């Protein structure tokens, strides 16, 4: 076996660095994987940095890469048994994509790893990683077809199965027969053929009706399916109950179901969620002026938008919280990540590299070919005055969620160095070409000015090679989705500025292309409390005005929600998110921004923390961040300083009105559900454990 990869890159990285060979010894010539000699191997597949092998006993072994592609715990550098949903099954076929894995028995296909571009085919409209094998959705995972073969591409896959068209047609015939009987009982006559009809397929799911899976039929089969589907559609229209009491929930995957999932959508495009789950979508243009009626309308619309079920639908308001409620989600976010110098050496420019470089040429003109091997932090140049450094980590948001406090405590650690400006907002706010005074990253506002923010850290790193630097631009997270990219973009049609870069020209794409190794920390807070805090905080320029009352905020919230509903009614959800107005209300729609980050950064490079849990269990959260950064807990004195530091950037405000809180909770509920579903159905992201009142 041969690594076969490092030598093809202009920037080499250490061969076999991810354990993808499954053995020790020289990587540049074939060598036996000794731990496999006890097995008879019947199938083998290799991904970018991992491999799979099926044995004659039907077992599956994996090695190399991350925990997600392995589908198991244990040593990555040696073959290990993959079980989970595969336990007791006889694996016959294997396939490996870039960062995902597939295995199949005679009748079922299983997938795990990265779900970027929905390549796993599990029917889950989320790009979150799957850490264990799971059956794919639809007939390929149901056990009714005979699987003949599997093959995986970069981020897509094919399965060869016996007579898939006949199986689907059989199901359609059965559905058509049931529908005909229902129509007959209702006194409806349905024709035997419809000319020029359109097949009723869920948009974005392919012929199987499952997100990420498509069935390929013969021309004759396609014609028969279209005819049957047209008949089914006619019957459904004739016998379906009418009125508002029978809504059809439409998910982001575009299917009529209750999955409540989330799919990456290009900024400026329309998703199915916009019509049903975005608070305030279906409203009359002439909204009532009466405040009480407006409140009732907001409540009714929000309640309707929460009617569809999802993987978070099993969540309920907790009674007594489990003893580990505030910390149980932390160990699941503790991967072992490569150092920046190794990740950069292994990085291959994306297909849209030239497009992104054209939008931000000052960045790519200064990035080095390689980083110094003696430094943990990404630094390059000589060890004297010529040393330049970039951040190892970035706390990317969200504003008013405790980012300043976290950053301050971290920089009390002797190994973690601060930037000259804690939050320069270079990637989102500094335009190109640079404009004087256009951002806070130095006088020129270009990439060199951003590098200069870490010159003080570079001076210290010369003598402390294990030290790392970071920054905390708290609006970075909510600048995704086409809102900001080297300046505000939401006021312009997507095509007017992105040009040929298209979907890929978003800020997470640019940041990934320039710093693919970056460790991203995100702190999220109950969006209702975040919105209330921001309302008071961003009134600093109105210091001469009186302190606003709870009634003032109530009226303000109603105006903002009405403005949002008016925008979505006239345009669409994606466009209104990009317009970023009302800004503080939109910032709490976390799911709309997370999807863009997860398209471009693997989930394990994002550490998501909940502000309420951070406050309740500060030591455990600081330890989790240090582990994420691969930094040891400091000696006792420094640790006590980190824990005992004064809380940063906090103020107290009068309590919010109860009815205001309930209106805002209902408004944000669909976005919170999307967030929870994207994060493996974790109920904490619904904020059901929050108090009923208070500021």
Automatic annotation (TrEMBL):
Record protein name field: Sulfotransferase domain-containing protein
PROSITE patterns found in the cross-reference section: RCC1_3
Biased composition (Low complexity): 246-276, 299-317
Any one Gene Ontology BP term: hexose biosynthetic process
GO molecular function, one term: N-acetylgalactosamine 4-sulfate 6-O-sulfotransferase activity
Gene3D superfamilies in alphabetical order: P-loop containing nucleotide triphosphate hydrolases, Regulator of chromosome condensation 1/beta-lactamase-inhibitor protein II
Superkingdom per UniProt: Eukaryota
